[in-house]
């Protein structure tokens, strides 16, 4: 029985690997710089405070998340365009701020997603709430559905800062994969065409 489970898991992972690459690598430096510059320009011209940024990154955990979720995306953050930063939660630093340029440089593909509940006021409040959580630890157990209310992983943070605007009866999955954030918003910009 155990052998059958292992074999079916290997087959499932193999099938998922055929759908999208397991590992993505940055382009040569000049090309990667040009791509990240285009991403930053889009963030500054299209993005608004409180928008979600959903990306596929280059780190080992990005590859693992993309494999496990079967999605093209592996991370999410909240845009603070007025300060030229994102507020994000990751295993290396918990909840912290990152300059737009650094975030873009680490992105293979990037979406700007406007949450369905966004208004200018709610977006500004979401940014303020996210910034108030800077310094909180990363929610490693949340990745298995065992959420710690004082810790956050990337998409948990993105949804948490809009909790007051969520409609009554909103179903929050136990684990929020980055690739599903578009279900609660509108994709305003996709860098995909730039990266082909």
Which regions have little confidence, pLDDT < 50, spanning 5+ residues?
Answer: 6-19
Report the order of strands and helices.
HHEHEEEHEHHE
Helix segment count?
Answer: 6
Q: What is the C-alpha radius of gyration, as a whole number of Å? A: 17 Å
What is the number of strand segments? 6
Strand order of the largest sheet: 4-3-2-1-5-6
Give the CA-based shape: globular
What is the CATH architecture annotation?
Answer: Alpha-Beta Complex
Head-to-tail CA distance between termini: 44 Å
List key phrases describing it.
alpha+beta; 196 residues; 6-stranded antiparallel beta sheet; 6 helices
Task: Tell me what you see in this structure.
The protein is of the alpha+beta class and 196 residues long. It has helices spanning 2-19, 29-46, 60-69, 100-105, 120-132, 154-160; strands at residues 52-57, 75-80, 85-90, 94-99, 107-115, 185-190. It has one domain: endopeptidase domain like (from Nostoc punctiforme) (endopeptidase fold (from Nostoc punctiforme), Alpha-Beta Complex).
Describe the structure in brief.
The chain is an alpha+beta fold and 196 residues long. It is built from 6 helices and 6 strands; from the N terminus they run H-H-E-H-E-E-E-H-E-H-H-E. It has a single domain, classed as Alpha-Beta Complex (endopeptidase fold (from Nostoc punctiforme)).
């Amino acid at each position: 029985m155990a052998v059958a489970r292992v074999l079916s898991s290997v087959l499932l992972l193999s099938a998922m690997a055929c759908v999208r690459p397991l590992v993505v690598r940055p382009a040569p430096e000049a090309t990667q710089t040009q791509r990240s510059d285009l991403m930053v320009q889009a963030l500054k011209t299209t993005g608004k405070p409180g928008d979600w940024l959903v990306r596929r990154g280059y780190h080992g955990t990005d590859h693992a998340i993309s494999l496990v979720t079967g999605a093209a995306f592996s991370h999410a953050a909240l845009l603070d365009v007025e300060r030229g930063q994102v507020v994000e939660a990751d295993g290396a630093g918990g909840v912290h701020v990152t300059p737009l340029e650094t975030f873009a440089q680490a992105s293979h593909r990037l979406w700007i997603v406007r949450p369905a509940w966004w208004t200018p006021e709610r977006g500004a409040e979401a940014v303020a709430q996210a910034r108030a959580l800077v310094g909180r630890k990363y929610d490693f157990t949340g990745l298995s559905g065992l959420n710690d209310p004082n810790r956050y992983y990337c998409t948990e943070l993105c949804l948490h800062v809009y909790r007051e605007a969520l409609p009554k009866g909103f179903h929050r999955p136990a684990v929020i994969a980055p690739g599903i954030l578009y279900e609660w918003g509108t994709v305003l910009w996709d860098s995909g065409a730039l990266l082909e």
